[in-house]
Design goal:
Length: 339
């Protein structure tokens, strides 16, 4: 959908490299570019599908095929950057988004256009220019045009980590904010499972006596509290990604208990995997609004509460400006650093 709309807006011809010419030989992907790209500015538009790993390999092979065909520049257009949630080190894991960035640069990408990276610092993983576009103007416009009594709304952060984004939305809509803090208390799991408790006896082992490491106090969240008044108000929960909806459903239940009479969820990327549509349909959430950075037609059929905002216009304008060597600052006007 985005590709066709962008083609109409730009009045350009897109190379027919997929789906008819992305060939699957046994379990391998083979790309054949059907036209000459020598000396051309190539824009590879790739939407992340359910099979994210195949999506990445298709992109890398397409970029590499254009590079070895002597394209002048190759710009990747990924409305949703895959593996962006894995951008921090967790225990003995790895920072996968750094790996993906390195692979894209190595394949021959010279520029990247994406939207609402999970963490803005991901831009630093690339050694090429990255334009991280924002969907907030489209979501704000939806709030103003599609929620008649939005003046009686409060912007909600479902966790303290998304408070900055909520504040940015609230300031431009001139509304108040509320923050949900804490978690549901599960008495049994904390008491029975002692793995999260500190050791009762200091074990210095081979550590030198003068270098004793202080015991760490285990993290313990308080019961759920809502900082801010939502009674008799519309609650609008904002976030960048909605995938596993458990936390959104729990937040909606909490807000309903506190007196909110309508609950909306606004997010840029609607991954909505597995049983997310069913959980939304059965929840206290009245409407989930996402953009079309990721295809979700099937999820909409399963859940009428899911609404879509089209952001293809800003992607097409970004492509036009890059191709013509124009400034990109117009696309970031009135965009706060916390968006």
């Amino acid at each position: 959908g985005n590709i066709n709309k962008m083609g109409c807006v730009l009045g350009v011809h897109f190379l027919s490299v997929f789906p008819s010419h992305v060939l699957f030989v046994s379990i391998e992907t083979r790309v054949q570019i059907q036209e000459s790209v020598r000396g051309k500015d190539v824009f590879v538009i790739q939407t992340v599908s359910k099979d994210v790993n195949t999506t990445i390999m298709e992109m890398l092979i397409m970029v590499y095929a254009c590079r070895t065909s002597c394209a002048r520049s190759i710009t990747g257009v990924l409305p949703y950057f895959p593996y962006s949630k894995q951008c921090k080190m967790r225990k003995r894991g790895s920072i996968v988004s750094k790996l993906i960035a390195s692979m894209m640069c190595k394949a021959g990408l010279t520029h990247l256009i994406t939207m609402d990276l999970h963490q803005k610092e991901i831009q630093g993983f690339f050694n090429i220019p990255v334009d991280n576009l924002r969907a907030s103007p489209f979501l704000l416009q939806y709030i103003q045009e599609e929620i008649p009594d939005y003046r009686n709304a409060v912007i909600v952060a479902k966790s303290p980590s998304s408070a900055k984004r909520a504040q940015s939305f609230a300031e431009r809509l001139r509304l108040g904010i509320a923050v949900i803090h804490g978690e549901a208390q599960d008495a049994e799991s904390d008491q029975v499972d002692g793995r999260h408790s500190p050791p009762t006896v200091k074990t210095t082992g081979a550590i030198h006596p003068s270098m004793e490491i202080p015991l760490l106090i285990p993290k313990e969240k308080p019961p759920i509290t809502v900082v801010g008044d939502v009674g008799g108000r519309i609650a609008i929960i904002v976030d960048d990604i909605i995938d596993d909806v458990d936390s959104f459903v729990a937040a909606a239940e909490t807000l309903k208990e506190r007196g909110a009479y309508k609950i909306f969820v606004m997010a840029t990327h609607g991954i909505l995997s597995s049983d997310a549509p069913r959980f939304i349909e059965e929840s206290a959430i009245d409407e989930v609004v996402v953009t079309n950075t990721i295809p979700h037609e099937l999820q909409k059929l399963q859940c009428p509460k899911i609404k879509t905002v089209d952001i293809s216009m800003i992607l097409s304008e970004a492509i036009r400006r890059i191709h013509n060597g124009e400034s990109m600052s117009y696309l970031f006007r009135n965009i706060g650093v916390d968006d």
